[in-house]
Amino acid sequence: METTFETSSGAALRAFWTRIALIEFIELGSLGFALWCFFVIASPNTPDSSLLDLIIFFTVTEGLVLGSWVIYNAYILIARAGGRIVDISIWILATLLTSSYTLWAWSLLDLNRLLMAKLFYRGEAPVEFAWSAQSKQVRKAWERARKVRSA
Fold first, then answer.
1. Which of 28, 33, 71, 117 is disulfide-compatible with 127, CB 3.0–4.6 A?
2. 108 or 4, which is more confident
3. Distances (CA, A) of 127 to 9, 10, 12, 20, 41
4. pLDDT per residue over 45-58, tens digit each?
5. Tens of pLDDT along 64-96?
6. What is the pLDDT of residue 23?
7. How many CB atoms lie within 10 A of CB 23?
8. CA-only gyration radius of the chain, Å
9. In terms of DSSP H, where are the helices of the chain?
10. DSSP notation for 87-112
11. Cβ proximity of 115 and 107 under 8 Å
């Protein structure tokens, strides 16, 4: 019998690759920071800006990117739990409240999730997308089956 020892950092790294939300959080946080850096560098007013102005702009940039992502994930969770009628109702309500922002933000976040899932995600849980009712049903069935196995 062969005994292998794994370092805690190796286990932590493997656990990281199985969590799509953590992968997206780090990636989108880094992307928001890069976007902020680009705007600060490209802005002609940067030398005249105070540190408080830059911090507020950083907070707004990160808040917009990560806030949209949190709303996107909340929508997916609620839509999965509520079913097709709730899914469509939330989508219509969000569209009425935000105009086309919901369409573009959720479409870009779906594309981002597809890329992250293909490139980095190594978990066994099915990946869900905002615009795919089938992906939400597959995830719901997977979670139900996992609860039955663990019970």
1. 117
2. 108
3. 25, 24, 21, 8, 36
4. 767 778 888 888 89
5. 999 999 999 999 999 999 988 999 899 889 888
6. 92
7. 20
8. 19
9. 8-16, 20-42, 51-82, 84-98, 101-119, 133-150
10. HHHHHHHHHHHHTTHHHHHHHHHHHH
11. no
Report the distance separating Cα 74 and Cα 85, nearest Å.
16
Contact 15, 6 (CB under 8 A): no
| CA angle 29–33–36, rounded 5-degree value | 140
- Residue 125 and residue 21: Cα distance in Å, rounded? 12
Residue listed under structure tokens 């597959």: 138
Phi, psi (deg, nearest 5) at residue 67: -65, -40
Give the model's confidence band at 9: pLDDT under 50 very low, under 70 low, under 90 confident, else very high.
low
